């Protein structure tokens, strides 16, 4: 790779920053262009599964993030009345997938990723557009703040409403509404003790988990028309929808202020893209394969994308302008089938846990309770091929400190 190789990352979220850090680690000159005025992320917390943590090992921060794990105890799945449908085992999950799940504030992860970059690498309030995707013979060009920047590689990490994706694939229909909205809070709830859980009702779900810093992360979802909002505030809306569910849900809602509650409609790419690249441009994360959050894999897959794009065995380079197209074709070949399959599985899970029919819910709950008697392994099977993924780098390089 020529020393002058330059990458521009459009989007300063978790996927974009991971890509920037990985490329910088490989010797690229990297610029991150973020349209917001700061890197303050949208959302409250993120769960990182063993697959994403192994990807973060490549840039040297996997163990640091693992140390933030708070989800050490067992939890499970409950009904709104509090009955346990199934119990999960953190020990069994760690044994099956080679590691445990880590739940941490998004701000913590974003800050740690940004710290891996040199001063001045991140430009905020920098709305960028793709002027030319480039090809084997010429660099890509990005327009920002009245100027055009050339790059050997452009990474489109600009989210579900990606302008980069629209520029590359203008005929793609783009994101569609998944049929439900989500609420999230990350707050202290003094005096409340509970086991981590997710609760499934009729067309509604709730999850409550504790972070290492003692704060509680809770999320909820409900089937609603797109664009619908509370007539007063979203804390009051949570109270109306979930206030009579089992403890600690009412206490969590009561501890939240209206301004603590984030609400977002869920959209996803129902139709996969034809490729995750074009010319010298690669798409990653929600820009490439936005999926419902029902598997908790959206951010995890963005981290995987970023590392695969710049792992030690990647041949990404600009020397002679002859190899970047082949390298990005290999990136698409590695990522498109995997992310498409995971996105489809997330849609299937959404249909199950957001079911609104009393009859369907009764059958669902009975089946889950029956399966749970066979132990947690049956439920963990749903993450086989997902949480056990490993990045394509040699383990001896990791042990030698060459991650």
Low-confidence stretches: 317-322, 394-403
Number of strands: 18
Main sheet summary: 7 strands, mixed
**What is the CATH fold-level name of the domain at 6-71 and 101-175 and 270-352?**
FAD/NAD(P)-binding domain
CATH superfamily of the domain at 6-71 and 101-175 and 270-352: FAD/NAD(P)-binding domain
Label the overall shape: globular
Strand order of the largest sheet: 5-4-13-14-15-12-16
CATH architecture of the domain at 6-71 and 101-175 and 270-352: 3-Layer(bba) Sandwich
Mean pLDDT: 91
The number of helical segments is 14
Helix content: 25-40%
For this structure, what is the CATH class of the domain at 6-71 and 101-175 and 270-352? Alpha Beta
Distance between the termini: 18 Å
How large is the share of residues in beta strands? 15-25%
